[in-house]
From TrEMBL:
<dbReference type="InterPro" id="IPR048950">
    <property type="entry name" value="Ppx_GppA_C"/>
</dbReference>
<dbReference type="GO" id="GO:0006798">
    <property type="term" value="P:polyphosphate catabolic process"/>
</dbReference>
<dbReference type="GO" id="GO:0005886">
    <property type="term" value="C:plasma membrane"/>
</dbReference>
<keyword id="KW-1003">Cell membrane</keyword>
<dbReference type="InterPro" id="IPR043129">
    <property type="entry name" value="ATPase_NBD"/>
</dbReference>
<dbReference type="InterPro" id="IPR050273">
    <property type="entry name" value="GppA/Ppx_hydrolase"/>
</dbReference>
<keyword id="KW-0378">Hydrolase</keyword>
<feature type="domain" description="Ppx/GppA phosphatase C-terminal">
    <location>
        <begin position="308"/>
        <end position="480"/>
    </location>
</feature>
<keyword id="KW-0472">Membrane</keyword>
<dbReference type="GO" id="GO:0004309">
    <property type="term" value="F:exopolyphosphatase activity"/>
</dbReference>
<feature type="domain" description="Ppx/GppA phosphatase N-terminal">
    <location>
        <begin position="19"/>
        <end position="296"/>
    </location>
</feature>
<dbReference type="InterPro" id="IPR022371">
    <property type="entry name" value="Exopolyphosphatase"/>
</dbReference>
<dbReference type="InterPro" id="IPR003695">
    <property type="entry name" value="Ppx_GppA_N"/>
</dbReference>
<dbReference type="Pfam" id="PF21447">
    <property type="entry name" value="Ppx-GppA_III"/>
</dbReference>
<comment type="similarity">
    <text>Belongs to the GppA/Ppx family.</text>
</comment>
<protein>
    <recommendedName>
        <fullName>Exopolyphosphatase</fullName>
        <ecNumber>3.6.1.11</ecNumber>
    </recommendedName>
</protein>
<dbReference type="InterPro" id="IPR030673">
    <property type="entry name" value="PyroPPase_GppA_Ppx"/>
</dbReference>
């Protein structure tokens, strides 16, 4: 990537951030930043519906971002939705409108993927020492990661953030010892399931990232003149806040007006983390999710593919027959290449189809009966580093429909790709699986696949091959019948 501009957008629960950078050779230079406080999480009601007012605040911000990104191609922009969009029951409605006003696709990342991206942002912008614990307190969630160099070793995303804790423990603006203790204990409770693993793995350095921790650093530094957050400093801030009694009376050096409404919640969460993990001090890194997204561009340029590593790890963990998986993949990609132009399948679908082919038998770990359902369940619920939530859903959907009857009403709508394109990939995967039923190399001759009409496939089969492979021909005819039941026409032609 030479002299190319790229942009990343972090759709946070409190603020939306955009970073624009220029790649030159092997270096990356940030050339512009935009930030708008939209308070998206404020719009979540008791049943996790996002209010129209909150959506409008977000859309207004994205219109501004969209103006700045005029002239950018989709391959130059990555947009990540985080906790609030993971939680909102009507997130897809917002995403649909947001993509229209912004002009670029939006990925909703899982909590663990968010944690990994945050770590990459820190690791690429900070000189780290040994094993590092990174803590990021956002509007809706808190991410904790232990890593070394550029490798994450342990990740977790906990459902506690400044906006959600403010609404629950400081909604009336009162700052009392009782409110603080309730909030701190709630944070500690959130960490109980994971604290043992973190303490067991250990760390040499602790770094915080993002706005809440940066504000707490500035407040601590105003007293100590040191660029570090320590436990005495945090307790001193708590004393200052409780002495004020209410948010409207708070006046502390280092605390800006726009950060004031959320500071009590942020402080409580960090104190809960300090208590649970026995921390006494931490540093700060300017790198965070948006910088982590930037470096995913850089990683792709250097052919570092986290998704490939994830697929390999799953293959090993679930003892997948990798030779068979590779046969299915090669057949699927060969069929894909033959109809790519006619079906307008872009290159981004190659990895998705290939990944589904490599993982379609992951469900054998449970049982052959219902393997397609078992495989889809595993892929829907596994932690898949490198995959966004939408990519993970698409992968699971492909695998779910790779065999047996096509119950398409069970398909969940996806933003990642149109339903029609997903169905086309399903058809290619099903054919590849059927053609490799013998699980042997050297069985398949060249098999021309053409489009007789827009969605009508024609597969040409050598007559002598058909005479020698009755099992495969019967399998293909059964597949033809399955597709016909959902009005997908597949013509098998002896040549």
């Amino acid at each position: 990537m030479t002299d190319q501009y790229v942009a990343t957008i972090d759709l946070g629960s409190n603020s939306f951030h955009m970073v624009i950078a220029r790649y030159h050779g092997d270096s990356l230079r940030i050339v512009d930043r935009l930030k708008e406080r939209v308070r998206l999480a404020d719009g979540l009601d008791d049943v996790n519906l996002l209010s129209q007012e909150a959506m409008e605040r977000g859309l207004a911000c994205l219109r501004l971002f969209g103006e700045r990104l005029r002239g950018f191609h989709a391959t130059q922009v990555r947009v990540a939705g985080t906790f609030t969009l993971r939680e909102a029951a009507n997130a897809q409605e917002f995403v649909r409108q947001a993509q229209q006003v912004l002009g670029f696709p939006i990925d909703i990342v899982s909590g663990n993927e968010e944690a990994r991206l945050i770590y990459q942002g820190v690791a690429h912008t900070q000189n780290t020492q040994g094993q590092v614990l990174v803590i990021d307190i956002g509007g809706g969630s808190t991410e904790l990661v232990i890593g070394r160099d550029f490798d994450c070793k342990l990740v977790s995303s906990r459902s506690m953030g400044c906006v959600s804790f403010t609404r629950k423990y400081f909604a009336d603006g009162r700052l009392t010892e009782e409110n603080f203790e309730q909030a701190i204990e709630a944070a500690e409770y959130q960490l109980v399931p994971v604290m043992g693993r973190y303490l067991g793995l250990g760390w040499d350095q602790v770094l915080g990232s993002s706005g809440t921790i940066k504000t707490l650093l500035e407040m601590c530094s105003a007293v100590t003149q040191e660029p570090v957050i320590d436990l005495p400093g945090l307790l001193h801030i708590k004393t200052q806040l409780t002495a004020a009694g209410s948010l409207d009376k708070v006046d502390i050096p280092g605390l800006s007006e726009d950060r004031k409404p959320l500071i009590a919640a942020g402080l409580s969460i960090l104190l809960g983390v300090f208590r649970s993990l026995n921390l006494d001090k931490m540093g700060f890194s300017d790198g965070a999710l948006r910088e982590g997204l930037l470096y995913t561009f850089f990683g792709r340029v250097k052919h570092h593919d986290i998704q490939v590593n994830t697929i390999l790890a799953l293959s090993q963990e679930y003892a997948i027959d990798t030779r068979q998986a590779e046969r299915v993949k090669q057949t699927a990609l060969s069929l894909f290449d033959q109809v790519r132009d006619g079906w307008q399948l872009d290159n981004g679908f190659v990895d998705l189809l290939g990944g589904a082919a490599l993982l379609h038998e992951v469900g054998l770990h449970i049982n052959f009966t219902g393997i397609h359902r078992h495989s889809a369940y595993i892929l829907s619920n596994a932690d898949l580093p490198g995959f966004t939530q939408e990519e993970q859903k698409a992968l699971a959907a492909l695998v779910r429909f790779h065999r047996k009857a096509l119950k398409l009403t069970e398909l969940e709508p996806l933003n990642y790709l149109p339903e029609r394109q997903l169905f086309r990939l399903v058809r290619l995967l099903r054919l590849a699986v059927a053609l490799n039923r013998r699980r042997q190399d050297g069985v398949l001759p060249p098999l021309p696949l053409t489009l007789a009409a827009d969605d009508e496939l024609r597969l040409s089969l050598p007559a002598d091959w058909c005479d020698r492979n009755h099992l495969l021909l019967t399998t293909l005819e059964r597949e033809q019948a399955y597709q016909a039941k959902v009005d997908w026409k597949l013509e098998l032609v002896r040549v």
